[in-house]
Amino acid sequence: MRLAYSEFGAGRPFVVLHGLFGSGRNWSGFARRLTGYRVIAVDARNHGASPWADDMDYAAMAGDVLELIEALSLGRPALLGHSMGGKTAMTAALMRPEAIGALIAADVAPAAYSHSHLPLVRAMQAVDLSKVHRRADADAALAGAAPEPAMRDFILQNLVFENGAAHWRINLASIAAHMTPLIGWSVPPGAGVYDGPTLFVHGGKSAYVRPEHRGEIRRLFPRAEIVTIDGAGHWIHSDRPVEFVATVARFLKD
């Protein structure tokens, strides 16, 4: 599948993968701050401007990324992924370690999580879009499922209006059908380890990367460096943008 993407800057190739409900444009601020790199911010399948598909496991999404790297003749780019994008990036590195020059996993571990976003997906599916004439209408409809305004603002970036009609630009049906593999984790069949330079950077206020995950991180990514950014939550690149860019830039330089 040929994914949609946006490019920023010039220099060494650097591919960025967003998380669930996101898109490449969520990373435009980061891309503009990171100088000296050709940043390619990708829309995952069923997100943003990329095509929709019934299949949505990490092997399929990693295959999309590897296909894009080859199509753009990027050589062995650095690859950064946040949350769902981080698991996609890890899977790509394990599937084709020779294709990835360096790996950065932002606030995610090679682990299954118990929380599910399915109630939020169901709430989005339940919104009567025929009655949505402005973002505020959908915002009110989602308040029960997503009480935090910041989360609703993030979700509502996926609401678009065309010819006066509202629709979601993400494939909610496929996301709902694949929520279990999306919150889960499994090493692709036949994959080994990725022994290239690796950074796991996570927020000090987030529980996505915990001490009990370190053993599996070290097993699959033996050169992994683990860095905590104090004061940041799961959206580490938004919570502490300056510190996050500096951490990534230092890792890439080293």
Q: Rg, please?
A: 18 Å
Helical segment count: 11
Please tell me the CATH architecture of the largest domain by its name.
3-Layer(aba) Sandwich
Q: What share of residues is helical?
A: 25-40%
The end-to-end distance, rounded to whole angstroms, is 33 Å
Write the layout of secondary structure elements.
Blueprint: E1 5-8, E2 12-17, H1 28-33, E3 37-42, H2 58-71, E4 78-82, H3 84-95, E5 102-106, H4 118-126, H5 135-142, H6 149-155, E6 159-162, E7 165-168, H7 172-177, H8 179-183, E8 198-203, H9 214-220, E9 224-229, H10 236-239, H11 241-253
Parallel strand pairs: 2-3, 2-4, 4-5, 5-8, 8-9
Antiparallel strand pairs: 1-3, 6-7
Helix pairs in contact: 2-3
